[in-house]
Design a protein that fits this description.
Helices cover about 40% and strands about 20% of the residues. It is an alpha/beta fold.
Length: about 325
Amino acid sequence: MTSQLDALLEALNDPPNILILPHNNPDPDAIASAVALQYLIEKQLGRKSRIRYKGFIGRAENRALVTFLRNPLHPLTDADFQWADTVVLVDNQPGAGNSAGNASLPIAAVIDHHPLLRTTANAAFVDVRPKLGATATILTSYLQEADLLPTSVLATALFYGIKTDTLSLVRGASEVDIAAYLYLQPHVDINALIRIETAQVPTDYFAQLDTAVRKARIYQDVVIAFIGPMTYPDLVSEMADLLLRLEGVQWSVCMGIHNGTLSLSVRTRRRRGGAGGLAQAIVKKDGTAGGHGMMGGGQLSLDKWDTPTLVAELTQRVLLHLDIPSMTVGIPLFV
């Protein structure tokens, strides 16, 4: 029986120019997984590849990770699509709202841990494992199967990818994630990891944090916050993580605007998850949304909405999905 690694290498064996695409606004799991795949392609097939992304890498920790990895990924351009013979999607799937795939290029492989999409079936190779907490876990398994010991730099990135996506193994982590985490741990550059996790942030981060906290409203066991204009789109996920720590809260939803698009992030403490479903219920057909387990997110264009009306409508969709009376008045965190 052909292993997943053998099938992946077979799918990547012929096309000379391989373009690796993590999801838009890539997080540590997507970044580490893309770099690990590039390492695997070079070691097993003797070929170079490109890692490109759409959006922004704005979060201080994520920028620090990329710097630590010596900047292996760069913004996607039309020239990259012209150069590429095929595409590999990492930590995303074709047709997803956070995917940068190009319909004109064949997809050689899809490697992801989010729920399987129908559109993924057209890829030559598919390894989608929604029971896992991180795509970095899948890439770690490939390295183990290939008997490739990751460098300290790569091990640190993969370890951090698993750690962030599973919230240090307490959010949707499987036994396979735990095993990968423990396998990587002895090879981690601890000092580098500390520098990444404690990366300094600009002053406007605190201004937006202040806005998120002041605008947050509590509806029973849900906290909803609208940040307004953001300097980078993944700020909503940072704030959703922070607000979920509020005592008595089971759900957090954070929204903000960047470049004419409203981004939202959903988090839950509930072990049975449902964050992706809530994100889809919020967005409906007005945009794109997804996620799994205890994390979710989405985007909507502001073309057809004025911002106050849209935020009010999305708030009502949250309450409806969570069976909270629509007339419930949001309580500020403080007066």
